[in-house]
Structure formats: structure tokens, C-alpha cells
């Protein structure tokens, strides 16, 4: 069984932005997930970054998709 080591490729304190990036990546066939999505609620509103993570083999493709989205 191959071990999966996710790679964080994007960080933001804006949960809406994290959700948008997540949905864009999923729509492009990238397997990804959001880390620390609700951490602010747990820490009493202290700003904690949400992070998008992907499989290492999809890192470069995901970064290109994010770059294209942010440059629009």
C-alpha cells in the first residue's frame, strides 16, 4: 500500500477563498482537501489559516490552476 503524504499548496485566512479554490481544484479533477477549515470557531475566532492540500503527484497541476484563477 502506497503511503499518502499530502502537500499544502495554498494558505488563506479567508474560508470563502479556501472553499472557492477547493471547488475549482475538484472541478478540474484534483484530489484535494481543506485543513483547519473551522479552526477559527474552535479557537474563539483567532485567525488560523485554512490550508489546501493535494497529493504530491498533483502539486504542479494544482498550482497552475490556482495561479490561473488568481490572475483573472
What kind of oligomer do you see?
A: single chain
**Structural category:** alpha+beta
Low-confidence stretches: none
CATH architecture: 2-Layer Sandwich
CATH classification, class level: Alpha Beta
Determine the number of helices (DSSP H or I, runs of at least 4 residues).
3
The third-level CATH topology is Alpha-Beta Plaits
From the N-terminal CA to the C-terminal CA, the straight-line distance is: 40 Å
Based on Cα principal axes, name the global outline. Answer: globular
What would you note in describing this structure?
It is a single chain. The chain is an alpha+beta fold and 72 residues long. The protein has a single domain (7-70), classed as Alpha-Beta Plaits. The protein is 40% helix and 21% strand. It has three helices and three strands, in the order E-H-E-H-E-H. It has helices at residues 15-27, 39-42, 59-70, and strands at 7-12, 32-35, 50-54. A three-stranded antiparallel sheet has the order 1-3-2, covered by helices on one side. The termini are far apart. The mean pLDDT is 86.
Would you spell out the secondary-structure blueprint of this structure?
Blueprint (H helix, E strand, L loop, with lengths): L6 E6 L2 H13 L4 E4 L3 H4 L7 E5 L4 H12 L2
Antiparallel strand pairs: 1-3, 2-3
Short description:
This protein is α+β, with helices and mostly antiparallel strands and 72 residues long.
Could you name the key traits of this structure?
72 residues, Alpha-Beta Plaits, three-stranded antiparallel β-sheet, 21% strand
Amino acid at each position: 500500500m502506497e503511503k499518502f503524504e499530502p502537500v499544502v499548496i495554498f494558505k488563506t485566512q479567508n474560508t470563502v477563498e479556501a472553499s472557492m479554490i477547493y471547488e475549482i481544484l475538484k472541478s478540474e479533477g484534483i484530489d484535494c482537501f481543506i485543513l483547519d477549515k473551522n479552526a477559527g470557531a474552535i479557537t474563539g475566532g483567532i485567525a488560523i489559516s485554512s490550508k489546501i492540500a493535494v497529493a504530491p503527484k498533483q502539486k504542479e497541476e494544482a498550482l497552475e490552476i490556482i495561479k490561473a484563477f488568481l490572475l483573472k
